[in-house]
Amino acid sequence: MQAEALNFVGHASDRGMTGNLSGNAGLRLVFPAGEKQVRRALSTAAGAFAGMGLSDDAKGLAEIVLAEVLNNVVEHAYAAQRPGLIEIDAWLEGAYLWMKIQDDGVPMPDGVVPKRRDQDVTGAVETLPEGGFGWSIIHELSHDLTYERDGLRNTVTFSLDLEELEATP
């Protein structure tokens, strides 16, 4: 067994949690917060989204939103402390893909999801911001976006309207 395999907690089946979530085929991942582990989790999620019947377009946009949330967890929730675990649950409800991401990192500032902040991208390339687009992307593509802090646990929940994602140019 490779050492790297031990760093990834793995798929729901590895933890004996296979089956349906909310009555629909779903995904459950638990893994250490880290850049490499997030990439592996996104790859696993992409396969699960395909297995749920998402089109390539909807799958790609779902991956983008999930990547932005997960990167924020790694970069901000666990930035000042020893890395912990991230949990992802995803399930279908009608025409919506729901996702719940949980971690035990520091809470979001002011206890709320950051507001959408549109960036001015009309200037010269050297004046463009390097970051700050993540929450705008999340707000733009998702619905029902909520954040809760319960004790030491952060929970971000949102839905993606699959029919709307299909229509996105």
Structure, explained:
This protein has 169 residues and is of the alpha+beta class. The chain has helices at residues 3-7, 35-51, 56-77, 134-141, 162-167; strands spanning 20-21, 24-32, 85-93, 96-103, 143-150, 153-161. It has one domain: Heat Shock Protein 90. 34% of the residues lie in helices and 27% in strands. A six-stranded antiparallel β-sheet has the order 1-2-3-4-6-5. Helix 2 (35-51) packs antiparallel against helix 3 (56-77) and helix 3 packs across helix 4 (134-141). The protein is globular, with a radius of gyration of 16 Å.
CATH architecture annotation:
2-Layer Sandwich
Number of helices: 5
What average pLDDT do the residues reach? 80
Proportion of helical residues: 25-40%
Computed over alpha carbons, the radius of gyration is: 16 Å
Elements, N to C (H/E): HEEHHEEHEEH
Q: Can you tell me the CATH superfamily?
A: Histidine kinase-like ATPase, C-terminal domain
Number of strands: 6
Uncertain runs: 1-23
Overall spatial form: globular
Q: How far is it from the N-terminal to the C-terminal residue, by CA?
A: 44 Å
Q: How large a portion of the residues is in β-strands, by DSSP E?
A: 25-35%
Multimeric status of the protein: single chain
| Name of the CATH first level | Alpha Beta
Q: Order of strands side by side in the largest beta sheet? A: 1-2-3-4-6-5
**Any idea of the CATH topology?**
Heat Shock Protein 90
Tally of separate domains: 1
State the major sheet: 6 strands, antiparallel
